[in-house]
Design brief:
The structure holds two protein chains of two kinds.
Chain A lengths: L21 H23 L3 H15 L5 H15 L5 H21 L5
Helix pairs in contact in A: 1-2, 1-4, 2-3, 3-4
Chain B lengths: L8 E3 L10 E5 L3 H10 L6 E5 L2 H11 L3 E5 L7 H10 L8 E5 L4 H9 L4 E4 L4 H24 L11 H18 L3 E8 L2 H8 L1 H18 L5 E6 L2 E7 L3 H16 L13 E8 L7 H17 L5 E5 L5 E4 L2
Parallel strand pairs in B: 2-3, 2-4, 4-5, 5-6, 10-11
Antiparallel strand pairs in B: 1-3, 7-9, 7-10, 8-9, 11-12
Classes of the chains: A mainly alpha, B alpha/beta.
């Protein structure tokens, strides 16, 4: 799959300045690392249905936390996993993309004081 | 993050008896639930959530929310099936359900609306849009409830009407049989009502019926169900009330009505005859049989000279009369 070199800069939530969201964002971002590892493990053990559930939940939630790019990438992974014939290479690529965005979100997040 | 089928139920409302409408979110993703809770904080609502559909149904039956936010894709029973179950239960059939879904195909929307969904929002949701949709659903529900209640109220007396009585009687008789809780039913009939109408005109008759209505509403307790049964006849359903206590309540009604001075005919008092059937312990009497027993005592009160309360305790058919 041809890919453009992606922007690797830190990613900030659209709601970073929203007082209501500070605590929630902390909680959401603090779990992203574990989620990213979980996806890697699920892929390694080929537990594709569980992986799909994680992708599905991330897709539904991330946009609401101000990370539309994360939602979108999770959506890509979910639809690849939903395909009748799964392409392992593409799934692995989508997981890597998603992990990279998770990583950027973690780097871009400033915890509430 | 939990991926299993374990469920949890959270009720955030400090005071669920408050009059603020309750929003129930049913979603297996804790991220989404937390987000909804925070984003709906600015609305004047209480918030409760369940992490599985079946748990959500249980909570909906118990808490009677004003609106349900229901995720479609959940492990185990999915949102469509939960929606079907909510719409099949009389407890929740009227509750508006807003579907939350990552699916946005027309087919899924059609399925949701066909099953009775009030609205459909795709995830990730725009919070301003979700807020107004929640508000609109609550508004519809509140109006619906108001209309439904109004349809159960008698216009002249402000009491519950006959159809409400029929429904409550069945409910209370079955509760009484199941839980062995006391139950009493009184039938009340205004004495010589035709005479009031003939001598002082129909408006005077209406004033008497309205007066009996307001007297009943004043005297009875919150748990009692005062109804206009038809014409000049009233019914008073008293759950968790022994025959003796029911007789005492009715005796007060009788005495107070007797003392009312009517502006349209100050020289003419109005009295009422009351027959009560009551049981302190469980009985297997059918709802119609309760009305018959109370009616029988009402006739006894009439033939005994009117303006009196006659009651029987169902397990011991000993009759006691209280003359006026």
């Amino acid at each position: 799959m041809p890919t453009q070199p992606t922007d690797q800069g830190p990613l900030t939530s659209q709601f970073a300045g929203d007082a209501d969201m500070l605590e929630l964002l902390d909680m959401f971002v603090s779990e992203l690392g574990a989620r990213s590892e979980q996806m890697r493990d699920l892929l390694a053990s080929r537990r594709m249905d569980d992986l799909r559930t994680v992708a599905h939940q991330l897709k539904g939630a991330a946009g609401g936390y101000g990370y539309p790019m994360l939602s979108q990438a999770a959506g890509v992974l979910e639809s690849q996993l939903a395909a009748p014939v799964r392409d392992l290479g593409e799934v692995a690529h989508a997981v890597a993309e998603l992990q990279s965005i998770c990583d950027r979100a973690i780097r871009g997040h400033r915890p509430a004081a | 993050m939990s991926q299993g089928t374990s469920t949890h139920v959270r009720i955030d409302a400090a005071n669920l008896e408050s009059t603020r409408p309750l929003v129930l979110a049913i979603d297996d993703s804790p991220d989404v639930v937390r987000l909804l809770q925070v984003r709906l904080k600015s609305e004047a609502v209480e918030f409760a959530s369940a992490s599985s559909g079946l748990e959500g149904i249980e909570l909906a039956r118990r808490l009677r929310p004003a609106v349900i936010l229901l995720d479609i894709e959940m492990p185990g029973t999915d949102g469509f099936e939960i929606l079907r179950m909510l719409k099949e239960s009389p407890d929740t059939v009227q509750t508006p359900v807003i579907m939350l879904s990552g699916l946005s195909s027309a087919h899924d929307k059609v399925t949701a609306f066909d099953l009775g969904a009030a609205d459909y929002v795709t995830k990730p949701f725009d919070i301003a849009e979700l807020r107004v949709r929640v508000r609109a659903a609550i508004r519809t529900f509140t109006l619906f409830q108001m209309l439904a209640q109004r349809a159960q109220i008698d216009g002249l007396t402000g009491l519950w009407n006959r159809s409400h009585f029929d429904r409550r009687l069945v409910e209370e008789v079955s509760r009484h049989a199941r839980h062995a809780s006391p139950l009493a039913l009184a039938m009340l009939d205004v004495d010589r009502f035709k005479h009031v109408n003939d001598s002082f005109g129909h408006p005077a008759g209406d004033a008497v019926l309205a007066g009996v209505g307001s007297l009943l509403r004043k005297i009875v307790r919150d748990s009692d169900v005062p109804c206009r049964y038809g014409g000049e006849e009233f019914a008073l359903l008293m759950p968790d009330t022994t025959p003796e206590d029911a007789a005492a309540v009715c005796e007060r009604v009788r005495q107070m009505l007797e003392q009312v001075t009517w502006p349209r005919h100050p020289e003419h008092n109005v009295t009422i005859s009351i027959g009560i059937a009551g049981a302190a312990k469980a009985t297997q009497l059918a709802p119609e049989a309760w009305v018959e027993r109370a009616d029988r005592n009402l006739y006894a009160a009439k033939s005994g000279g009117r303006n009196r309360v006659v009651w029987t305790s169902i397990e011991s058919p000993l009759q006691l009369n209280r003359a006026g």
